[in-house]
Amino acid sequence: MTSQIRLRMDERPGGIVAYVELANEAKRNAIGPVMIAELKSTFLELAENDALRAVVLSGAGDKAFAAGADLGALGLLDPASARQYITNLHEAIAATRALPVPVIAMIRGYCFGAAVELAAACDFRLGDTSTVIGMPEVKIGLPSVIDAILLPRLIGDGMAREMMLTGMNYDAEAAHKMRYLDHLCDPEDLAGAVEHRVDHIMQSAPLAVRMQRRLMNAWEQMSQDDGIALSIDLFEEAYRSGEPQRYIAAVRNSAPKK
Questions:
Q1: Is 231 in the same domain as 185?
Q2: Same domain? 112 vs 237
Q3: pLDDT tens figures, 151-200
Q4: In whole angstroms, what is the distance from residue 161 CA to residue 141 CA?
Q5: Based on the domain organization, do 174 and 220 belong to the same domain?
Q6: In sequence order, which residues have a C-beta less than 8 Å from that of residue 197 and are 6 or more positions away?
Q7: Which domain holds residue 18?
C-alpha cells in the first residue's frame, strides 16, 4: 500500500525541521483511514525527537491542502465504525496539537472539513490566493465535530456558527479577514513566507519555544490562576536548564561596548 504521508527531515544548524505532506493527490489529499493512521504515527514519532525545532504541514500538489474527509470512507460507515473513525481522526489531530514544537500549516487550494480542523490545531496557518475553506458536513447529513471546537476561539463564535450551520465556502481573502489564515500571499511567495516563520523559530531558544507552546495550549484548558501558576513553574524550570543564562550572556557579549 502506498504511503499517504510523506516525511522529509531537514537537518540544519541548531536542529531539525520536519516537512509532513498529506499525499493522496488523486483524491485531492482526502483524509481517509490510512492517512489518519499514518498522520497519527508520524506525529507521535516526531514528538520523541529532541532535535526537532519545527514542522511544516502541507498537501501534495497545488489543488488542495486536503479536500476534507474521504467521502468513500464515510459512505461505508455504520454507527459503531463511525464512532471509531471519528475517534481515530481526533487522535491524529490531537497528536498534531500535542507536538512539543510549533507546527505551520502551508495551505494551497481546497481546505475543507477535517482539513480545516487539522490546520486549526497548528500554530500558524499560511495560505495563498488559491485557498478555499469550508465546513460542508451539514450538507452531507453530519454535524461538524471533534476539533471543530477550536474554531469559535480562533475565528469568533458568530463566524464559526455561520461556517458550520450553513456549510458555506470562503475564498482566501475571506479566510484571512476572519483570521483563520494568519498570512495571505501570492502562490509564488507562500514557501518563502513559511520559511520566514521557520527561520525565526530556529533563531529562538529551543527549550523556551517548547515551553511557550506547552503553556499556550495549557492556558486554553486552565483558569487564569492555574495558568499563571504553571507559568511560574516553567519560568523556574527554564533557569534550571541553564538556557536563559546562556542566551542572555550571548546577547550581552554581542552588544556594542560603550
A1: no
A2: no
A3: 999 999 999 999 999 999 999 999 999 999 999 999 999 999 999 999 99
A4: 16
A5: no
A6: 54, 102, 104, 124, 126
A7: 5-203
